[in-house]
Structures are given as structure tokens and as C-alpha cells.
Amino acid sequence: MKKVLALVLCVAMLACFAIPAMAEGVTLNGGEYTAKAGDAIEVIVSADGSLSAGNLIFKYDTAVLKFEKMKKVGMSSDADSAIANEADAGEILFAFASSAPLDAGELVQLNFTVNADAADGDTEVTIEIDNLSVADAQGETTDLKDTTTLNAAKITIGEEAPVDSQPTDSQPTDSQPTGSQPTDSQPTDSQPAGSEPANVVSTNSTAPASTASTASTTNPKTGDAGVAAFAAIIAAAAAAAFVAGKKKA
Fold first, then answer.
1. Residue 53: which CATH number?
2. Distance between CA atoms of residues 234 and 228, nearest Å
3. Which domain holds residue 224?
């Protein structure tokens, strides 16, 4: 009985080692922003985990935004290759590849201009994955496409309404007799001798106006860098081929 139990335990342990661990996906976050018609806006997409290569598609509403350019920041600055192209209106193709896993952080910056005739309201820059992966020190590549969470960039367009500011009505002070009305402080011929002129009391207060505008971006915490096992030239070529191929199509 003991031999059978030992054999069962051995088989179970071998099975555990034979089953590869499921890699947890990362989160790609576009952040939240506030802008007005005609403003320039910088949308920064960040990742909260290590990445080695990927082909992403960013989509936006051309009635609200105009794409200007991509700027390398963080992970894309450290990559062997990072390129972007707007093959179709409202669709930005972005590809990057690295010979070493890239630390978590800012992935890419997309520069837009809000159209001068853009209507007030909310709009998004959505994120789609064509492929996304990370490689370990042994050169084993893990596909992250189906395990990655995508948070679109959310942009609020429009002026914020100022707080109303109206002067308050005149109120009598504590020193003014109840029921009395303020009068001009001028003595008249008919005023009895020795009488004191009535005090003129008037108070005006104006509530200051305040405005507020917010823009936020999410900066995820950094992760640990690994050691790459695949060639930088091949990775860079794959990234370039994605953008070039999509553009021709």
C-alpha cells in the first residue's frame, strides 16, 4: 500500500512539472484627460508588466481628434525598434520589439490635436492587440494577447462651467436698530436739536469664482527587467513588417 501511495505521489509531482505555468497578462492603460477644442493633447499608454514585442492598434474618432505623431517614451525608447503609422484615418498601427524584456512603465505617447469644431463630450482612444509577448531568460516566449487587460484612453472635451458669483443684498448690522432703514447721513433744518444723524450701513460681499480642470495619467509601478534570448534584428524586422504590411493592405 505504501509503495502504491509513493508511486501516485511521484506521478503527481511529475505532472505538476510537466504542466507549464499560465503567465499572467499585463494591463495596458491609456489614462484620462481633459481638453478643449483646439488643444494639443498627449495620450500616454502604459503597461504594468514586462513586454518584449507587440503589434498594437489604436483607434480614435476623427470627428474629435487629429493624430499628429508618435513619441517614444519609456519602453518604446528602450526597444530595439518602435514605429507607428496611420494607415487609415482613425487607426494608428504601433509596433515595437526588443532583444531584452522591457521594464513596466510608459509604453508610447500619442500626440493629438482636438479639432476646432469638436463638440463637447467624451471620446476614447481604444487599444487592440494584434500580438503581444514577453520572453524569458531561456528564450521561451509567452503570448500575452488573450490575458492582457485593455483600458482605453478617456478624453473629456469641453469648458468647465464657472461657479456663479452674485453680490449679496445689503444686510443691517448688529448696531442698526431693528426695523430701521439706512438713510443719508445729512442733518436737515427740521431735525431736532441734539439729535444724531442715522448711520448708513451697507455691506456687499462677492463670492469668488472658481474653476477647476483635471487631467490624469496613470503611471504604473515598474517591474523587473529580464535577460533576452532572441535576436534584436529579427524582432525589429518583425515590428517594421507589421506596420509596412498593414499600410500596403
1. 2.60.40.680
2. 13
3. 34-160+215-248
